Amino acid sequence: MKVIKIIFILVIILFSVFVFLRSKIRVDYSEGNCNKDNQCKWIGEVCGGGHGVCTSNKEKINNEVQIGPCDINNNFPHNQGYNCGCVKLLGRCGWEK
């Protein structure tokens, strides 16, 4: 019976950590591996602020073009308070609060 209670508590703790991290990290609209924040950059921002990608792809970063639609995507991570950077826990670029 004690083992079942311990497992139940561990499941609750893991679920809570998952829910917390999910509210702080997004990996949609992102690509590339990293281990430092300065390796990731938001490219393709354009005027609406709801486009582009958080990436570590040097070719895309060096050839960035700021042409695109001028509309606002309310679901885009930056429009919800996230910033492009390296999600060190995952070793990839993403969006963090």
Question: What does this protein structure show overall?
Answer:
There is one protein chain. With 97 residues, the protein is α+β, with helices and mostly antiparallel strands. It has one domain. The chain is 29% helix and 19% strand. The chain is built from 2 helices and 5 strands. It has helices spanning 2-24, 58-62; strands at 25-26, 41-43, 53-55, 83-87, 92-96. A 3-stranded antiparallel β-sheet has the order 1-5-4. A hairpin with a 4-residue loop joins strand 4 and strand 5. The radius of gyration is 17 Å and the shape is elongated. It starts with a helix and ends with a strand.
Q: How is this structure best summarized?
A:
The chain has 97 residues and is an alpha+beta fold. It has helices at residues 2-24, 58-62; strands at residues 25-26, 41-43, 53-55, 83-87, 92-96.
Report the structural category. Answer: alpha+beta
What is the residue-averaged pLDDT?
Answer: 82
| Topology as a string of helices (H) and strands (E) | HEEEHEE
Shape: elongated
Give the total of domains.
1
Write the layout of secondary structure elements.
Elements: H1 2-24, E1 25-26, E2 41-43, E3 53-55, H2 58-62, E4 83-87, E5 92-96
Antiparallel strand pairs: 1-5, 2-3, 4-5
Salient structural properties:
elongated, two-stranded antiparallel sheet, alpha+beta
